[in-house]
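My main concern about presentation is that the manuscript never shows what a single data entry looks like. An entry of this sort, consisting of the sequence and the corresponding backbone structure tokens, reads as follows:
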Amino acid sequence: MNKNLKRLIEGYFSSVFSDISEKYNIPEYELESIFDSLFAKEPVTEKKKAGNTCVYVFERTGKNNKKGDVCGTKIKGEGEHCSKHKAKQKSNDSDKKKSKLPKLRNTPSKKDDKQIEEVIEDIKPKIILRKHKTLGVFYHAETRFIFESPIDRKITGKLNDSDVVESIADSDSKLIEKYKFIVV
């Protein structure tokens, strides 16, 4: 029963990390490492450096490893990665610089929670336009706004639940502001 519960929880968090990663363009392994560091008894990076072993975190499940596992191979020479993952060190460093989320300590305070919420609200959501099969117009699936073209992204109207084009209402102003759309 313990293993089933563990698998269930891991599956849930995996899907949550995947959704957050897709929506806010943050690598999944970075979210997992933040989550792991919150519940570690001591900081994970210090634990890894102390043993002079490779700190590379596997991004997918392979033949001899599991997604989220640490390589742990002994390092010959200097650096944080073994010879196999030395090339990944540079790409991981650049991914960390691109991250828009603040780094968290082991015990986050209420102040940190507020900062994270502000950062998440400031991140512009990814906008994907789709072409409507019957109407032939481009629209945003989440908001149902219709656009002139995928290149000239100006709102011309909105689709209702029965796929009829309507004009934009005053109540849509919050969505327009959130996605930073331009209205014709």
About this structure: The helical segments are 2-24, 28-39, 44-50, 86-98, 110-122, 173-179.
